[in-house]
Amino acid sequence: MKYEFTGEKKVVLGITLRRIRALVSFGLVVKGKVGGWIEKEDNLSQVSGDAWVYGNARVSGDASPEEIARLDVVREVVLKNPKRLHMADWHSNNWTPEHTPEEEHACGSVHCIAGWLQALSPDLAIRQMEPYEAGKKLAPASSHMFSVSDERAFLWLQNREYAKVADTPPAK
Fold first, then answer.
1. For 65-79, what is each residue's pLDDT tens digit?
2. Which pTM was predicted?
3. DSSP assignment of 31-94, as one string?
4. Is 172 a member of any domain?
5. Which pLDDT value is given to residue 169?
6. Closest Cα partner for 119 from 172, 77, 149?
7. With CB atoms counted within 10 Å of each terminal CB, which end of the chain scores lower, N or C?
8. Helices 150-158, 65-80: crossing angle, 10 deg rounding
C-alpha cells in the first residue's frame, strides 16, 4: 500500500474528497507526506508507479493522475503549435509507430487527441495499436473527446478540463 486516507474530508461540487498521506517513500514522495484530495482509490494507484496528488490538487471521477499527466504532455505540444491538433484524422501521413516520443515532438506531425496520446507513448505495443484503442487505454476518462471539433478539443486542452473536478463530462 502506497498511501492512506487521513480522515480529512471536504465536499466540492457535491463530490466527497478525502486527503491522502504516503505510507512509504517512492519517487519524490517521502513517507508521511500529506498529499492532495481524491474521491476514491481508483483515482490513484496503491501499488504501481510514482504518481502522487500534491498539495491541494483534487482528483475525482474517472481520471487518474497518470491520465492527467499524459494529457498534460499533449497539451504542451498543442499549445506550442495549435496547427498540430487535427481532430478529423488519427495521424498525419508522416507519422509511423516506430517514431519515438522524442522524435514525435520534433517531426511536425499532426494528430487528434487519441493520436497524440498514442504517438507520445514510450510503449511500442501501444504505438502499434489502433489509435482509438490506444487513446482509450491511455486516457479512458477522456475518450468522449476523441470525436469533437478542433476548436472544442483545443479549448478542452488549453483549460485543462480533463484535470478539473466535475460531476459531468465537458460539453462537446
1. 788 889 989 999 999
2. 0.66
3. TT-EEEEESSGGGS-SSSSS----TT-EE-TT--HHHHHHHHHHHHHHHH-GGGB-TT-SB-TT
4. no
5. 36
6. 77
7. N
8. 120
Please tell me whether residues 78 and 152 are part of one structural domain: yes
Is the pLDDT score of 85 beyond 90? yes
Taking alpha carbons only, the member of 34, 36, 39, 31 closest to residue 14 is 39
Retrieve residue 86's grid coordinates.
487535427
Kind of pairing, strands 15-22 and 3-12?
antiparallel
Beta bridge partners of 21: 4, 34
C-alpha to C-alpha distance for 143 and 145, rounded to whole angstroms: 5
Q: Is the domain of 103 the same as that of 159?
A: yes
pLDDT digits over 94-151, tens only? 888 888 888 887 888 899 999 999 999 989 999 999 999 999 999 987 888 898 999 9
Spatial distance between the Cα atoms of 66 and 53, rounded to a whole number of angstroms? 10
Q: Which residue has the cell 514525435?
A: 104
Number of structural domains found in the chain: 2
Range of the domain at 9: 3-59
Strand pairing of 34-38 and 58-59? Answer: parallel
